[in-house]
Amino acid sequence: MRILIVEDERRLAEALGQIMEEQRYQADLVYDGADGLDYGLTGQYDMIVLDVMLPKLDGFEVARRLRCAHVSTPILMLTARDEVPDKIAGLDHGADDYMTKPFDAGELLARVRALTRRQGEVLTEQLSAGDLTLDLTSRSLRRGDKSVRLGFKEYDVLRLLMSTPKAVVPKEDIIAKVWGLDSEAEDNNVEAYISFLRKKLAFLGSRVSIGTVRKVGYHLEVPVL
Fold it and tell me: PTM 4-aspartylphosphate: at which residues (predicted)?
């Protein structure tokens, strides 16, 4: 399961990430509302843990914009203010649950499990583009009766491209969302994984290809069937 944590207190964000990773969840950390919205709009996440008081955009606005964009990912809001009007505002803006800081790690995990279990019936388990289907559980890419299993980074890069099939995804966005904001990955890392993916598309005989916009990034080229 992949979880997005949007929290501007870095020590708390890192502690939350560690709690999630100890449960074998993959956690991505961002530290302001603008990045939280950007990451959330990719639709890559099974759960979003969202602080209310954030720089650039507050949590209420992030939740509202995600719901306006028809992103149905469960949202658990965090706040230091234990006041009923704040909780009502969060739920009215699209949050699914609300926790007050400080909180118990066990209760946090229980709420995460409950929200993802509740959402389980409607969570998308695969992405499609042209003649390709990406299984989000097994990381397998399929065309017709032929399939190939992707490595973790290959899967993350392709999932990002398939989540926004009509958009050019800049290299810096791929680095931030696949390797992490604090990583030392560079353009050549992205280029290497794009090359790996192109070889797998060729192996499958897919009509879908990965296009390059020079000095910008990549996008899926999906022919009209």
Answer: 51
Question: Using CB atoms within 10 A of its CB, is residue 32 exposed (0-12), middle (13-18) or buried (19+)?
Answer: middle
Torsion of CA 120, 123, 199, 151, to 10 degrees: -30
Per-residue buried b or exposed e for 182-204, using 16+ beta carbons within 10 Å of the residue's own CB: eeebeeebbeebbebbeebbeeb
The pLDDT of 188-194, averaged and rounded, is 93
DSSP at 145 = T
H/E run at residue 152: helix 152-163
State the pTM of this model.
0.59
Angle at CA 164, nearest 5°, toward 72 and 6?
Answer: 50
Q: What is the mean pLDDT of the chain?
A: 87
Quote the CA–CA distance of 202 and 208 in Å, as a whole number.
Answer: 9
Q: List all residues 6 or more positions away from 138 whose beta carbon is below 8 Å from its beta carbon.
A: 149
Instruction: Return the axis-axis angle of helices 152-163 and 187-204, rounded to nearest 10°.
Output: 80
